[in-house]
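The data are passed on as follows:
___
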Amino acid sequence: MSLLPEVKDEHARWVLRYAVDRGPVDMLDRYFVEAFAEKFGVATKTMVLGAPKCRKLSEVLRALHFLRYLDRYPQGIDGMSGMSFPKWVYRYRPTAAGRGRLGLLEAAGK
């Protein structure tokens, strides 16, 4: 068993391309979460408010951050905490290494 996180190339490519094209992403972005779940047919859990929970996407974001393809920073959520929302969420943006990896994945057609 490897200590390095594993992430499928197709998942990495999709998340990196989405973040490059649309800017920073997070797990409370309903459109991002739903698009990922629909694209890859992964399970989600419907929430009363906001985006559905998607464990697989959370794992992919965590792995891409660990591999230094995504930079992660906390973003406060003003006025929403206490309404089933957290006070903050991690946002992710591609690093130079992530953009390079995306180029390699796209060149390889993965």
Observations:
- The chain has one domain: 9-107.
- The mean pLDDT is 90.
- The first helix runs from residue 9 to 22.
- Strands lie at 25-26, 70-76, 88-94.
